Amino acid sequence: MAEASLVVIGAGVAGLTTALLLSRHPRYRIYVVAKHMPGDYDIEYASPWAGANYMPVSNRGTRAAEWDKNTWAPLDNLARHHPEAGVHFQECQIHNRSKDVGSATAEWFSELLSPSPWFKDVVPDFRNLDKQSLPEGIDSATSFTSVCINTALYLPWLASQCLKNGVVFKRGTFKHISEAARFTNRSQKVDLIVNCTGLGAAKLGGVEDAAVVPARGQIVVVRNDAGKMIDISGTDDGDDEACYVMTRAAGGGTVLGGSYQKGNWESQVDPNLAIRIMKRAVAVCPALTDGQGIEKLDVVRHGVGLRPVREGGARVEKERIDGVWVVHNYGHGGAGYQSSYGCAEEAVKLVQEALGGYLAKL
Ligand SMILES: Cc1cc2nc3c(=O)[nH]c(=O)nc-3n(C[C@H](O)[C@H](O)[C@H](O)COP(=O)(O)OP(=O)(O)OC[C@H]3O[C@@H](n4cnc5c(N)ncnc54)[C@H](O)[C@@H]3O)c2cc1C
Ligand SMILES: *[C@@H]1O[C@H](CO)[C@@H](O)[C@H](O)[C@H]1NC(C)=O
Ligand SMILES: *[C@@H]1O[C@H](CO)[C@@H](O)[C@H](O)[C@H]1NC(C)=O
Ligand SMILES: *[C@@H]1O[C@H](CO)[C@@H](O)[C@H](O)[C@H]1NC(C)=O
Fold first, then answer.
1. 87 C-alpha to center of ligand 1: Å?
2. Per the structure, how many domains does the chain have?
3. 347/211 Cα distance (integer angstroms)
4. SS3 30
5. N or C terminus of the chain with fewer C-beta within 10 Å?
6. In its UniProt record, which GO terms are filed under biological process (predicted)?
7. pLDDT tens for each residue of 287-318
8. Which residue's CA is minimally distant from atom 13 of ligand 3?
9. For helices 63-81 and 340-361, angle between their N-to-C axes, nearest 10 degrees
10. Structural domain for 57, as ranges
11. What is the pLDDT of residue 319?
């Protein structure tokens, strides 16, 4: 049976999910080539630093909302039936302060902060919380059942599922797409390249995309249990800081965030910001330290990740570059997990369109 050779560049959640869905098609021979692989922690590799949860911030009626919507069912299925993936259900509360109206975080979260967001019928148990039950300073809140992904388990799980389906993994750094054949079985030409380079797309030669910028996210991972996820519309510490907590599946610890610092490439932890993150976390979730303040937080690590934000939204598109088909799937910003299956399914469709005629002729 005739086969097509595909090279997926990138082994973050976008590359791995796309490779996994492609690997279910028997006529594709798939290589994943990446500078960073699951297990690595690096400022250029966003995926390990994510919480990660499903908290849509996409606006109603957009392609991004469609991707998020199509990702819920696969994540729900993993949480229900595949404990080895490291995804579990958790209650999620969104706290809203009227004074945050117009701030950067509130703008970013506008759909999430709505009393009636588009996803209210997608996730289970969506409801508006009773005003009386809210902590001081919170004017309104919603709650729903979401998932929290332990990225330290989930990324290797995705890679393992790919390996089981015959995907070949190679370390490699691309300077230009013309190099693709170097990373494959050299006796075969490369029929298609899938571009899942995240923030790497801002620097890679060939078609540098100036619309891709980092939104720096600093986090603290602690051993303390929050038991639920909480996210607030803003903080009193500046427009580009955020406050959220979530407890990862399977003993993964609790992630305390955060920040959303656009255009900031700083890879080192800011110790002052770390203190503010911890203070805000114990204030919003006193259960973390039984009301005893940040001294009782048991820190696993401090970290910084860069969300690959693309002005105008993620790019899921096909393009012919120097005679080779390229399917792009990058620029997911703060939503790479919650849009992962929706985007990867669309990327697979584009691959099929691009190769359909070619495979038919063989
Ligand atoms: C603090 C923080 C919290 C977050 N929380 C959430 C959350 O709760 N939910 C959610 O959905 N999202 C969350 N995100 C966003 C999410 O992490 C990203 O959207 C997602 O990880 C992007 O995945 P990616 O595969 O596109 O990029 P990456 O994970 O950055 O992977 C890029 C890959 O491309 C490779 N690459 C790049 N350039 C080249 C090259 N030239 N040659 C070879 N390889 C190359 C890299 O080595 C890497 O393997 C969060 C992000 C941060 C930083
Ligand atoms: C959050 O607050 C804003 C501004 O007051 C308001 O428009 C919005 O409806 C609120 N959300 C909820 C869930 O009540
Ligand atoms: C390389 O490609 C050739 C031709 O398709 C094939 O016979 C061979 O098994 C391949 N080798 C590997 C390691 O994939
Ligand atoms: C991936 O897309 C980015 C942005 O357009 C570009 O810089 C890079 O060259 C692309 N890589 C490949 C292999 O097409």
1. 18
2. 1
3. 20
4. strand
5. N
6. D-amino acid catabolic process
7. 999 999 999 999 999 999 999 999 999 999 99
8. 185
9. 100
10. 4-361
11. 95
